[in-house]
Amino acid sequence: MSMNSFGHLFRVTTWGESHGPALGATVDGCPPGVPVTPEMIQHWLDKRKPGQNKYTTQRREADEVKILSGVFEGVTTGTPIQLMIENTDQRSKDYGDIKDKFRPGHADITYFQKYGIRDYRGGGRSSARETASRVAAGGLAREAMKAMAPGVQITGYMVQMGPHQIDRTAFDWDQIEQNPFWVPDAQAASDWATYLDGLRKSGSSVGAIIEVVARGVPAGIGAPVYGKLDTDLSAAMMSINAVKGVEIGEGMSAAMLTGEANADEIYMGNDGQPRYSSNHAGGILGGISTGQDIVVRFAVKPTSSILTTRKTITKNGEETEIITKGRHDPCVGIRAVPVGEAMMACVILDHLLLHRGQVGENRGIIG
Ligand SMILES: Cc1cc2nc3c(=O)[nH]c(=O)nc-3n(C[C@H](O)[C@H](O)[C@H](O)COP(=O)(O)O)c2cc1C
């Protein structure tokens, strides 16, 4: 069984472990002729890189990407693209004492129950180091998208940390890059810094909600029933480590609305194109994009590795206790932001390619 791949035409397979020599992504199905350099992909990896501020793990990884295949004279050749990132700061000894114990909230116990063997060094394959491979693939997807849908802009940001939500009336796109939390609200950024500092010093952790928006996606992208754009986006976001909930548009709150409030009214814009009075649908109807912003939110659980003793068991079934030492983020939601963006990029590109394959230029024109 091979469960390490995703995507229909833009097919991404990730490989590698937290403490192995390297990890990466093999991307099959990328169109030929896309200009790509390692620097273009590195830009996105630098956003996810650990150790950039006191709120993210102090593991020092350069996360330097190498392109081993599929690119010749600066452009993709249409053959498989191998992206590799070497692990340079593996301190396996940090994890030696958890060799025979299962860390609560981690996948140690389930990997062992499934495979009968586990790489205990930093969680092995279940470690979120794997998400570096996704970000590399997402960087490539962004470059490939430029030729197919040049107007697409994908942006992720945090909208909630623990119980603290952003003030939507203070939403400012320019703020997102200005603070360590990728939060579009300057006041929230300042309040959250104090809040997270307290949690970090006490060795605790907290969850978060991340929103990822794709602007400029043309109408008509997606597929009905089993290949819905929202189905693929949800699966992509849910596959990120520590994600426990995904919403599109109004999401769970749609259950509280009436039909009048929820159905986005349609009118003709001054440019002769259909427009909507609101976007409760999150830019997707019947699994197909409306041309509005595609809005996805996902909830990330609190970091499980905390400095408080927790009860657990050993491989032999003995009850014991554990403190997870090592280097950890007080809120892994922060570093999940570029990962969510990468997954959005891969899914949108995949559906642009599927659309081109099946429908080409024969799309319905209104007006
Ligand atoms: C970018 C990122 C970094 C993460 N870093 C840590 C970490 O430092 N410590 C930790 O306990 N969990 C971390 N996690 C979460 C774990 O990888 C995850 O909870 C664990 O593998 C169990 O999988 P599950 O939560 O998806 O069930 C991180 C998640 C992401 C997305």
From TrEMBL:
<dbReference type="GO" id="GO:0005829">
    <property type="term" value="C:cytosol"/>
</dbReference>
<dbReference type="Pfam" id="PF01264">
    <property type="entry name" value="Chorismate_synt"/>
</dbReference>
<keyword id="KW-0521">NADP</keyword>
<feature type="binding site">
    <location>
        <begin position="125"/>
        <end position="127"/>
    </location>
    <ligand>
        <name>FMN</name>
    </ligand>
</feature>
<comment type="similarity">
    <text>Belongs to the chorismate synthase family.</text>
</comment>
<keyword id="KW-0456">Lyase</keyword>
<protein>
    <recommendedName>
        <fullName>Chorismate synthase</fullName>
        <ecNumber>4.2.3.5</ecNumber>
    </recommendedName>
</protein>
<keyword id="KW-0274">FAD</keyword>
<dbReference type="InterPro" id="IPR035904">
    <property type="entry name" value="Chorismate_synth_AroC_sf"/>
</dbReference>
<feature type="binding site">
    <location>
        <position position="327"/>
    </location>
    <ligand>
        <name>FMN</name>
    </ligand>
</feature>
<comment type="subunit">
    <text>Homotetramer.</text>
</comment>
<comment type="pathway">
    <text>Metabolic intermediate biosynthesis; chorismate biosynthesis; chorismate from D-erythrose 4-phosphate and phosphoenolpyruvate: step 7/7.</text>
</comment>
<dbReference type="GO" id="GO:0009423">
    <property type="term" value="P:chorismate biosynthetic process"/>
</dbReference>
<keyword id="KW-0288">FMN</keyword>
<feature type="binding site">
    <location>
        <begin position="301"/>
        <end position="305"/>
    </location>
    <ligand>
        <name>FMN</name>
    </ligand>
</feature>
<keyword id="KW-0028">Amino-acid biosynthesis</keyword>
<dbReference type="InterPro" id="IPR000453">
    <property type="entry name" value="Chorismate_synth"/>
</dbReference>
<feature type="binding site">
    <location>
        <position position="48"/>
    </location>
    <ligand>
        <name>NADP(+)</name>
    </ligand>
</feature>
<keyword id="KW-0057">Aromatic amino acid biosynthesis</keyword>
<feature type="binding site">
    <location>
        <position position="54"/>
    </location>
    <ligand>
        <name>NADP(+)</name>
    </ligand>
</feature>
<dbReference type="GO" id="GO:0004107">
    <property type="term" value="F:chorismate synthase activity"/>
</dbReference>
<feature type="binding site">
    <location>
        <begin position="241"/>
        <end position="242"/>
    </location>
    <ligand>
        <name>FMN</name>
    </ligand>
</feature>
<keyword id="KW-0285">Flavoprotein</keyword>
<dbReference type="InterPro" id="IPR020541">
    <property type="entry name" value="Chorismate_synthase_CS"/>
</dbReference>
<dbReference type="GO" id="GO:0008652">
    <property type="term" value="P:amino acid biosynthetic process"/>
</dbReference>
<feature type="binding site">
    <location>
        <position position="286"/>
    </location>
    <ligand>
        <name>FMN</name>
    </ligand>
</feature>
<comment type="function">
    <text>This reaction introduces a second double bond into the aromatic ring system.</text>
</comment>
<dbReference type="GO" id="GO:0009073">
    <property type="term" value="P:aromatic amino acid family biosynthetic process"/>
</dbReference>
<dbReference type="GO" id="GO:0010181">
    <property type="term" value="F:FMN binding"/>
</dbReference>
